[in-house]
Specification:
The structure holds two protein chains of two kinds. By secondary structure, chain A is mainly beta. Chain A is built from no helices and eleven strands. The chains are: A mainly beta, B mainly beta.
Chain lengths: 110, 118
């Protein structure tokens, strides 16, 4: 059973606009949430994270929002750039657990 | 430049053959994960080691898969016998659990081992 879900397999956005990637989770024991970025033929790399005690974390063009009551988090990229085109994985962790979603392929159109 | 190293990068084999994938975690990291990337499941957790002891391998098909850490610098994932449905990219990741909190922070991934079973 998928504990972390990304329901949008793909997303296309115009350069300069906002990209919003969504993620839902089912396990209320998760206390740390992360986003990873993956280019073809490379391993995933860490992008941004948020603790369950916060509802927002911002790092440059990237902001992660957490809604614990809805068990939902989102990643906002503003402004989107062509180099942001990649697969984005949402992840959630708790004691002895670290689960990833199925990924969303983002394409930023120049 | 600390990184997770995986070998082989690519492996093509025939059904029924044994396959061994190796991972060298970042020095000092005491936690190692094995993941398999598939289209349907995304990054699927196979096994998880802390201080070389397996803590969770519930995601791994036990009849053909085995994972070990012979020492702190080497993790192995073995498939015997391999089947075409095992074709995927296998990732190893290492990290350190942060003190005083349950969930993990950042994991560092290797570049993956792409396995093709014919």
């Amino acid at each position: 059973d998928q504990q972390v879900k990304q329901n949008s397999p793909s997303l296309s956005v115009q350069e300069g606009r906002i990209s919003i990637l969504n993620c839902d989770y089912t396990n209320s024991m998760f206390d740390y949430f992360l986003w990873y970025k993956k280019y073809p033929a490379e391993g995933p790399t860490f992008l941004i994270s948020i603790s369950s005690i916060k509802d927002k974390n911002e790092d440059g063009r990237f902001t992660v929002f957490l809604n614990k009551s809805a068990k939902h988090l989102s990643l906002h990229i503003v402004p989107s750039q062509p180099g942001d085109s990649a697969v984005y994985f949402c992840a959630a962790s708790a004691v002895a657990q670290f689960y990833f979603g199925t990924g969303t392929s983002l394409t930023v159109i120049p | 430049d600390a990184r997770v190293t995986q070998t082989p990068r690519h492996k093509v084999t025939e059904m029924g053959q044994e396959v061994t994938m190796r991972c060298q975690p970042i020095l000092g990291h005491n936690t190692v994960f094995w993941y398999r990337q598939t289209m349907m499941q995304g990054l699927e957790l196979l096994a998880y080691f802390r201080n070389r002891a397996p803590l969770d391998d519930s995601g791994m098909p036990k009849d053909r898969f085995s994972a070990e850490m012979p020492d702190a610098t080497l993790a192995t994932l073995k498939i015997q016998p391999s089947e075409p449905r095992d074709s995927a990219v296998y990732f190893c990741a290492s990290g350190l659990p942060p003190p005083g909190r349950g969930g993990f922070g950042e994991l560092f991934f290797g570049e993956g081992s792409r396995l093709t079973v014919l």
